[in-house]
Design brief:
This protein is an all-alpha fold. Helices cover 42% and strands 0% of the residues. The radius of gyration is 17 Å and the shape is extended.
Length: 78
Amino acid sequence: WEQCTIGVGDVRAINQPLHYGMGVGTGKFIVDGDSPPRIESLINEHYQLWMYRVWSEFMSVSSWKQLKESHSKPQGVV
């Protein structure tokens, strides 16, 4: 994260629009029963996307019971 902050402050980066969609819609969960659900790719931001999805769920429920009942499972595409 430190290097990202330094890179964005560069004169060349300031004058260029940033792309925030790295890998959006391409992270397919693999659920094979041999390991925890995972996304196999070398360079991605799937962890960050999943973290924000879960954070949004935590912020929108009124109780732990409701969260347990409605919490997303790692499946589909991130």
